[in-house]
Design brief:
Helix content is 64%, strand content 0%. The protein contains 14 helices and no strands. The longest helix is centred in the first third of the chain and has 23 residues. The radius of gyration is 19 Å and the shape is globular. The two termini are 21 Å apart.
Length: 296
């Protein structure tokens, strides 16, 4: 990953921002590690493992977190991983490449054959997000919410949603730091920009809500209600953060997180691809309407 800022600009970030970036990357790393190691675990089990890992690291000195954050901002992911593993060893992981290799083995074992009846949906979504998948099944999985209607061989998006949530922990602050060096609170901007209502807004604004695969009648009803309230709120406040307080369809927010997770895996775990996707989808729909500095 390329450095998000020059060394001088990174050094100019306040200590809180450096530490926030470090904390975010640590959460991301633990999430990725759990996802790749425990391939049969559901999102609940993966979250439990991630939380337990972070609790073990949380008492770590602030200097360690700031150091990890500085390495990430300078594009030195392997140095960030090595610094973290000095206080919290990850079996078999000494560098970022070790994690990427775990992903290679998972993708090599995956079935890349796409069912023909999904090809049109996948083509449309790829066009909307301006990203072409090598493994189309990752996108199909991201668009498929978990429900009782799902057939047993169809993989739901709960694991990818978990991974996308973990990856956004790092990619969202990387976006904000890249374009807005003087943010008063990197933590607050990150949290606001990746909350479920913000992610739902991206789905509705981009038009992804019409391409959910295998939704139940109840899920379609909540999507319809979210869409109606979204349109009404936008009419009343076309230039502001109109999504605050509208009805939340967790199905839509989960799909957006799952798409980010799918792109991350498909791009060989390249954070830059996810940051670029975040900028393409999030900035024009949500980011530019937040109480943020001028447009980049």
């Amino acid at each position: 990953m390329a450095a998000i800022q020059t060394p001088f600009q990174v050094a100019a970030l306040n200590r809180d921002a450096q530490e926030t970036m470090g904390c975010c990357f640590i959460k991301t790393l633990l999430g990725i590690d759990a996802y790749l190691r425990h391939r049969e675990a559901d999102s609940g089990e993966l979250t439990r493992r991630r939380v337990m890992g972070y609790r073990a690291i949380k008492p770590t000195k602030q200097l360690t977190k700031r150091t990890v954050g500085l390495h990430v901002l300078n594009g030195q992911l392997s140095r960030a991983v090595r610094r973290l593993t000095t206080v919290y060893p990850l079996p078999g992981v000494a560098s970022w490449r070790d994690l990427v290799n775990l992903n290679y083995s998972e993708q090599a074992a995956a079935d890349h054959t796409t069912h023909q009846h999904l090809e049109h949906t996948i083509d449309q979504v790829e066009h909307l997000i301006a990203y072409r998948f090598r493994n189309k099944n990752l996108l199909a999985e991201a668009l498929r919410p978990d429900n009782a209607q799902r057939r047993y061989w169809e993989t739901p998006n709960d694991r990818l949603e978990y991974l996308g949530d973990a990856v956004l922990e790092t990619c969202a602050p990387l976006f904000w730091v890249a374009h807005h060096i003087d943010l008063p609170s990197l933590c607050d901007y990150t949290a606001e920009s990746v909350c479920n209502l913000a992610l739902q807004t991206v789905v509705l604004e981009v038009g992804l809500d019409g391409h959910i695969i295998g939704a139940t009648a109840d899920q379609l009803a909540e999507i319809s209600q979210a869409r109606e309230e979204h349109m009404l709120a936008k009419q009343n406040d076309p230039n502001g953060a109109f999504w605050k307080g509208v009805y939340l369809s967790k199905t839509l927010a989960d799909v957006m997180e799952a798409i980010f997770g799918a792109v991350f895996l498909d791009a060989d775990m390249d954070f830059s691809e996810v940051v670029d996707l975040f900028e393409r989808l999030h900035w024009p729909t949500v980011g530019s309407r937040m109480s943020a500095p001028p447009e980049p």
